[in-house]
Amino acid sequence: MNESSASKIVGPDAATLTERSRLSFDLDIDIAVVGAGLAGLTVALEAARLGASVAVLEGRHVGWNASGHQLGTVMPGYGLPIGDLIARIGFEDTRELWALSREGAEFVRANATEEWMPGIALSEGALVVSNVEAGDELIARLQMLGEDFETEVEGWQVDRVRAELRTDHYFHGVYYPKAFQIDGRKYVHGLAALARRAGARIFEETPVVSIDPSGIRKRIVTPSARLRASHIVLAGNIHLGAPLRRLSETLLPVWRYAAVTAPLGMRLAEAIAFQGSVTDSDGIDQFRVVEGDRLMWASPETTWAANPARFAPAIARRIRTIFPQLGGVEISEVWSGAIGQTVHGMPQIGQLRKGLWVASGFGRHGLNTTAMAGQLIARSILWGDERWRLFSPFELVWAGGATGRVAGYAIGMWERGSSAAAGALARYRERARSRERAAEARLAEANRKAGTRPPQRRPPPGRPRPQPPEPANREGEGTS
Ligand SMILES: Cc1cc2nc3c(=O)[nH]c(=O)nc-3n(C[C@H](O)[C@H](O)[C@H](O)COP(=O)(O)OP(=O)(O)OC[C@H]3O[C@@H](n4cnc5c(N)ncnc54)[C@H](O)[C@@H]3O)c2cc1C
Asked: What mean pLDDT value characterizes the chain?
């Protein structure tokens, strides 16, 4: 396991890391879960609620990796855009998958109440903003989400977006009033507490070093104990390692870095009025206002583990690029977590062989999708619910090992570079158009005063002059 995958300058969750118990005796149970991240803990919670005996084996501690270092935005959907999903598996199955992703989000909402998780700070609304002008695409997306996928959405025009986010970097936006955000780094510990309360046992500092999935009772070996279980759920994400190395190699590890600024006072309110989560359509930046006047921001990514502190200046620069009026911001905390990216962009949810399950590859959309995966797997084991089969078209595809990481990074950088260029071009065009409109208005005003007609624009040299249209031939209209 990589030591530095989740290091940070200040530990936000240190206080919540309570009694860690290591497994030191042999156990016989119904379900053994490998990994105490969001995925493993949700399986454990749901299976324990349904009456199974469950043990979670965690090599480090609850929420050690991505699950304890995420930003807490909960939205429906997946990493793969809805149009690509329809192209791949058809409209009806996409609708079902989308409905499952909404159920996942609602499962998180039901858990993240002040009663169950005090201080979880749930607030409503998320905005996805476009880095380029995409009005037509936006309308098509809104119609599809609203009419076909029963998701409440609002389309925001550029003016509305810019009234809330004072930057010319963003154009249109899709607002999800039912999406919400929570204190992401607290949620995973709340989930562990709920799972324990439901009867699941969670053992930390207990790495699984090997599994034998053959036979009805499967065997698990840890450094200090052995377990037997009817079902094993592999929820170790990119760090699974020895128990099933081939499975880890189907994920491209991506370290994502995030930070919180020092208090920014009134200048933050002047720059950002919107209080929900903001994500750009290229998935580069994700941010929101926290604690009244601080900004929480996630942006840079690498395909290798690096010290998060190194990325504080890059995040500060990125904030200044998008909101120059904030000036230089002081970063008070920075951290990272590694997400597992699949080749096809969809999570890995299902049964690898009888009694051996996988729940990983949740990418940046982990809150709703891990919740959904946990429910699907527990309900399949205990109730025979077969809906996890909707994920069968998304097979385990080798992510390319070390070469894949380099290629993934290069592709990621190229995509970021080209979307930044597209954004710059869109802003340039917008400025040019408004200059042109202002010039035309001045000319029209001058002509009005002088009592002359504005001159007709000449087509550029070399292009044929547009001819006046022929009178329409009604009989022939629509035929060729
Ligand atoms: C900076 C950042 C911001 C994010 N923001 C959001 C957001 O706002 N909204 C959202 O939906 N998603 C977000 N995500 C994504 C989300 O955090 C992940 O998709 C999700 O946490 C993945 O959960 P997991 O349980 O699969 O994996 P992990 O969190 O990696 O958990 C796996 C656990 O398994 C353990 N393990 C592995 N192998 C073994 C073994 N052999 N034996 C024992 N234990 C083992 C590991 O120690 C680890 O604790 C963000 C991620 C990052 C990094």
From this structure: 85
